[in-house]
Amino acid sequence: MAENEEFSFSSSNSKSSGGGGGTGRKGLPKIQTQGKKGSDSSDVCHDDSTTPVRAQTIDELHSLQRKRSTPTTPITGTQGAFFTSLSEEERQKQQLQSISASLASLTRETGPKVVRGDPARKSEGQKVTHVAHPHHYTPSFADSDSALKFTHILYNLSPAELYEQAIKYEKGSFITSSGALATLSGAKTGRSPRDKRVVKDETTEEELWWGKGSPNIEMDEHTFLTNRERAVDYLNSLEKVFVNDHFLNWDPEHRIKVRIVSARAYHSLFMHNMCIRPTPEELENFGNPDFTIYNAGQFPCNRYTHYMTSSTSIDINLARREMVILGSQYAGEMKKGLFSVMHYLMPKRQILSLHSGCNMGKDGDVALFFGLSGTGKTTLSTDHNRYLVGDDEHCWSENGVSNIEGGCYAKCIDLSREKEPDIWNAIKFGTVLENVVFDEHTREVDYTDKSVTENTRAAYPIEYIPNAKIPCVGPHPKNVILLACDAFGVLPPVSKLSLAQTMYHFISGYTALVAGTEDGIKEPQATFSACFGAAFIMLHPTKYAAMLAEKMQKHGATGWLVNTGWSGGSYGSGNRIKLAYTRKIIDAIHSGSLLMSKYRKTEVFGFEIPTDIEGVPSEILDPVNTWSNKTAYQNTLLKLAGLFKKNFEVFTSHKIGKDNKLTEEILSAGPIF
């Protein structure tokens, strides 16, 4: 019994403790407690003296953790004599009615029943706003189950909220060590251009570019509506969908309202980053969108449907202003789908849409950079001495240039802090990292790992770039720079172009990549992409080229062709032109000093090349000087000229300009041999 007594409290010891000192077990000093005089609570030991939390349950405690957002500003401005301001509840109902209309099946009188909020938070006392239908239907055996349920709308969620949704519900979503959200895009890790279709109707048949060389694959209205119905039914069957209302084009006079309906938090965060994010006041006035995307990428299309060639279909209907995605979760389909739409809508307003980078000097001089993958467009347009207007998509209107997007979509393969410090530092909280590989413990990303795909990407808001110009607009461009990585080694490091030459090389969209042949020997392979973005243009390339030449002539812009590829021989025998030399050339273009240089004309292509540039060896400015074998140079030059001519044949049948003089002028600006 003595053992048991050693570990027990005696009543006499308890009474003697009363709030005073004394000793406890084994002679240890007792804990001092303080209670109110005359209260029995003097025997209670408190671990905190603050006021108890105002909650009776854990759920109530959790609800206290989240403060409601500040009420949005009422609509202001002249709204007419009979205008009355809307209450917050009425405004939300109107918003939900608009979303319900977007999700409406074409075979039913009304849209689905929609309710705002996360279904997982219903138990936490979250106030629910829903939209009631104007008609009351008594369920019958003909009704579907989806008509009896509510679809929860997660509307314009913040990045933090989307992180929570992705990590909780989407397998393959993780927070990396830098704070970015790592996601997987499923089986598709890139765009599916052969599965992208456009509805061909009476209007688009006349307006769009169809046939050989065109990226536009036709489909009929009925097939589009079949796929739309499939996508909408899938989205309505879900317990919740994400809805983003955003803008395209930083020019307020010409911006487009877009709505994206998707099933994944990853897609919602991606578009939050890539589009222009509205202010609360702008959302209040948003109303109905100009264009809507239905992203049901987790659900395949029906391969027995007419025109379908796989389980993937990316469909655009310009008359309905809608896009449907089935069978692909790759987020880039949304970005580039909207870019295609802008290539149609903007030229109708006499605004030129461009697949280009754009930066601006401290004095307001703007430069456009065109170039295919591997030409250095991102590297050269990112200049710490200049403001970044945008990295990929722009408009050129009567007001100047404007970025179409609100974010950047950067390649991540082999990314390093040393090579691309701005991109590296932009990969932080809020950024989406697609298909990257990371350490399972530290969550540090290995950008050299291609286990999932080589096309790893980061999507982040443009304000993550320190020298981004916000708002992303600028005056009319002073220089138009066409970049080519010529692996044949015969194009000069820089050439000044006439307007006709600018049009010719803009339409050609040339670069040369190194590709492996069957016997294992690597040799240059010419690549042409009309307007440096053939996959996204809607109209015939000559129409964009004519608009470019008109704007350049009107605003006094100069065209340049800059070769970032090889010199002194083709790939394998020559050397890559040093980046330091190319930067000196670009600096001379920006400063205007290159316009003051002396020029001489080359054979075959007829380029005007400078005889001297500060910081660049004069002998490399004319490529013939760098080839030891002059015969090999001449043969390679003629070979490349022949490739240009062959590529341009597909454009010669399209006549533009009065009496076709403009077309003839463009053709005469090509190589002559």
From TrEMBL:
Residues 37-49, 115-127 have a biased composition (Basic and acidic residues). It catalyses: oxaloacetate + ATP = phosphoenolpyruvate + ADP + CO2. InterPro entries: PEP_carboxykinase_ATP (IPR001272), PEP_carboxykinase_C (IPR013035), PEP_carboxykinase_N (IPR008210). Residues 1-79, 107-130 are annotated as: Disordered. Pfam families: PEPCK_ATP. Its main location: cytoplasm. Residues 70-79 have a biased composition (Polar residues). Keywords: ATP-binding, Cytoplasm, Kinase, Lyase, Nucleotide-binding, Pyruvate, Transferase. It comes from the Eukaryota. Its EC number is 4.1.1.49. GO terms for biological process: gluconeogenesis. GO terms for cellular component: cytosol. Belongs to the phosphoenolpyruvate carboxykinase (ATP) family. This is phosphoenolpyruvate carboxykinase (ATP).
